[in-house]
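Retro notes - structure team

What went well: the batch runner handled both jobs without manual restarts.
What didn't: labels got mixed up in the shared folder, which is why I'm recording both outputs here explicitly, each with its sequence directly above its tokens.

Job 1
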Amino acid sequence: MPKMPPLKPIAMKERSSLIFLEYGLLDVADGAFVLVDVNGVRVQVPVGGVACIMLEPGTRVSHAAVDLAAKAGTLLVWVGEGGVRLYSTGHPGGYRSDRLLYQAKLSLDPAARLNVVRKMFEFRFQEEIPTDYSVNQLRGMEGVRVREIYDRIAKEAGIEWRGRRYDPGNWGYADLPNRCLSAATACLYGVTEAAILAAGYSPAIGFLHTGKPLSFVYDIADVFKFETVVPAAFFTAAQKPSNPEQEVRRSCRDMFRMQKTLEKIIPIIQEILDAGGLEMPKAYDDMVPPAFME
């Protein structure tokens, strides 16, 4: 039997953003992902054609599927029902030690870290940030700006917004806008983490957010949050659908594709880190960039 040629991953910018799978076995058949349900019905998933596969409860994953996901640069994310919680993620092979060292060096240098955070805020709020502000002062400014933006988008959507209130351990505690926003934010985190890993960086090494496994994911997701998932969540909540989480997921999926969110994230990550003012370490010969970045 002839040996199969090595898999050439599809460029990140050319992929669909994400898909959700539930109640079945994610396996491999004829070199492609397939989801097999309890009745043996198979649904094919384009190999490497998506950046992120969100695995809902009731989904099992074969060893072959994990192996294929790593080779194709597809991030596997284990989420709660409706995608409203993000439990764990795989690693699609995007890490590069030169970029990890660069990211860590920026985060440990106070001046560089402040420059990176300032650049994030410039992207988020579309205004020039005072150069003499500390990180804590920027956090205070963030709180005021974020509340104003939430209120503005809520008014545009025609919903009542009483602030960001939710309990991760009690999903039913949150009101409809908060439930929609949690579901939408989980979608954005999955796509953002896929892009960060594809670019060769660590999701854990953050600048404004620190000390959590997804600190950098939260940093970068915040840059895109108010132009993507917040409007999607609030306008979905305004319609009062019977299954709000599902409707929000569909809205986010379509919006990510229409706005080409994945295509934007990686260049902005690099521009934000470049603002730190430190030189990127020279890559070693065996550190080739992941093919799925281009």
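Job 2
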Amino acid sequence: MLKDRTALVTGSTSGIGLGIARALAREGANVVLNGFGDPAEIERLRAELARQHGVTVDYAAADLAKPAEIEAMIADIEKRRGGVDILVNNAGIQHVAPVERFPTERWDAVIAINLSAAFHAIRCALPAMRRRNWGRIVNIASAHGLVASTEKAAYVAAKHGLVGLTKVVGLETARSGITCNAICPGWVLTPLVQKQIDARAAQEGMTPEQARLALVSEKQPSQEFVTPEQLAELVVFLCSPAADQVRGAAWAMDGGWTAQ
């Protein structure tokens, strides 16, 4: 379905982003990975994706906290591939603390990666999308883009901002072949979350299954985690012709979290 399209997925060297990159490559898109990690492991993933799906897979090491590096990354993709057809803004970081004790440098970092980076990537990718009159922008927001939790001021502010940015871009591109939408996941079982489960099990003397259920049950009525694969399939749908009129949406995939 996406043969010869070029997809940039930020934060795609592990977790949700890697799951999305795999699904887009499966659909025939040439993929640009971006994120931090061990260079040898990133190269292994890059080569594996290319070999498995018969597509071109590149890696861009841009630091998303630096707008100039985002600009250079997208300019390079435009030079080599003609532009970004599918932009998935997935990269994100987190810091937890009460507002009055929230370090200002951590606030700035969370806003930079979770919100400003998406803005810069969109503004740089849009001109080429407009020239071709086709594009898909998918912002990976969060249930925290719709509701709040304590001690997550920067993350909640950034994700609410990302949902707002999605709506604006959705409206500004409404009469074109470009769509912009957000996905708002709840708890996703990534390696990072698995570490939280393991730590909770150790600290509270629980089995891993008890710790998993305790964590997910705090927010999600389904008592089931969202998987990276489920999120990836929603991204694929949003890139399909069936989603041509899905514009400016904030699509919850959260096991019922925000329905409460």
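One thing worth noting from job 2: The beta strands are 6-9, 30-34, 57-60, 86-89, 135-140, 178-185, 250-253.
We'll revisit the folder naming next retro.
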